[in-house]
Amino acid sequence: MEIWLNPACSKCRTAVSELEAAGVDFTVRRYLDEPPTAAELGEVVARMGLEPWDVARDKEAAEEGIDLPRDASHRDEWLAALAAHPRAIQRPIITAADGTTVIGRDADSLDRVVTAEA
Q1: Which of 1, 61, 67, 112 is a plausible cystine mate for 88, CB 3.0–4.6 Å?
Q2: Tally of domains in the chain
């Protein structure tokens, strides 16, 4: 299991605590220090059944100047923009060994990846 996180984020700290409490092994990727590539982001959003703009933090995206139409013809531009400005990506993103991927901001999402890991 891998968790992309920002250690300053309370939701990320909560997710780490929950994963530790569940006894699952995981690796941490500080995605602000080691940003995902556009290709990695594309894989992640596809596994979640989402589009890039669905994982964008609206306020941070606006602050970073990401102002793109939210449609399929701009998908690659969204992926490139989020890769260039990772603070605009929702967090934490957690991927279980079976490929189950969630934005771990709530108990149900955390339960999905813990269950997938079991």
Answers
A1: 61
A2: 1
